[in-house]
Amino acid sequence: MTDTAAVHDLTDPAADPFAVAEAAAAVIRERTGVERHDVALVLGSGWGQAGDLVGETLATIENTDVPAFAKAAVAGHSGTLRSVAIGDTGRRALVYGTRTHYYEGRGVRAVVHGIRTAAAAGCTTVVLTNGCGGLRPEWSPGTPVLISDHINLTAATPLEGATFIDLTDLYSPRLRALARQVDGSLDEGVYVQFRGPQYETPAEVRMARTLGGDLVGMSTTLEAIAARQAGLEVLGISLVTNAAAGISPTPLSHQEVIEAGQAAAERCGRLLADVVGLIGAGA
Predict the structure, then answer these.
(1) Distance (Å, whole) CA 78 – CA 96
(2) How does it assemble (predicted)?
């Protein structure tokens, strides 16, 4: 008899991460009753309530019921997957209430498993959201910012072997333009991912600015690379939840991140719902 847990163990070098993603997608199809989803939505810190405005939730699945998914490890995240109707388009969004962060120590395969599962479930677009520190003084807490590019400081990649992927337009210019149709005031910037889980030091923030960064956080870039490998079109949106270290006059805390997200929930939720609605309608 095959040991299912072993087969789905992404830390096992012998495991095929794409086969594990196919197995996870099969469970999602069975539990939701639909053959495919169209758009994947990853809700980062501060974005938890946003998924409620995308459309009616037609099915909810506990992460732990899906191969190689884990319960939420961060306060303010939800450990469920939801199948959500995108308005009256007849299309479905696969909404992740949490993500696996690199600092959790489960490996890069686990970090990008949700993305690969979304692709296996039929998605052609993914919207990656996060809560982050802002490096520009004009971005007050609660400001959503489009990601135009990234700098990956994790020293890791989801690509294995001689797999060469062009990241020139990783964060889709088309989707960023679509988002600006919804909110013309949206600014954009370069997202810098650190390993975490400690917040960045003021010196590290100065380094990020020198390198061309505008936003700092602990997620997103590895997922975006995996999404490009899988052929997904990527839209990245950061919610500035605090000024970064050395810019902020006060110590950083995760509670501040949660509170900023709650304060901006209505604006961010409506933005996300309208953007996903346009994507779902084939715009």
Answers:
(1) 8
(2) Homotrimer.
- Which residues sit opposite 193 in a β-bridge? 152, 217
Ligand-binding annotation for 172, yes or no, is no
CATH number of the domain enclosing 235: 3.40.50.1580
Helix (H) or strand (E) holding 150: strand 143-152
Half-sphere exposure of 76 (CA within 13 A, CB side): 20
Name, in order, each residue with C-beta under 8 angstroms of 134's C-beta and a sequence gap of 6 or more. Answer: 141, 143, 145, 214, 215, 240, 242, 243, 244, 247
pTM of the model: 0.91
Q: Which of 188, 200, 204, 223 does the annotation list as catalytic?
A: 200
Q: Is 77 annotated as a binding-site member?
A: yes
Q: What is the pLDDT of residues 195-213, one digit of tens each?
A: 999 999 999 999 999 999 9
Work out how many domains the chain is built from and give that number: 1
Residue 280: which H helix or E strand, with range? Answer: helix 265-280
Active site residue 35: no
Once rounded to an integer, what is the mean pLDDT over residues 5-29? 88
Residue 200 annotated as binding? yes
Structural domain boundaries, residue 157: 4-280
45 is in an annotated binding site: yes
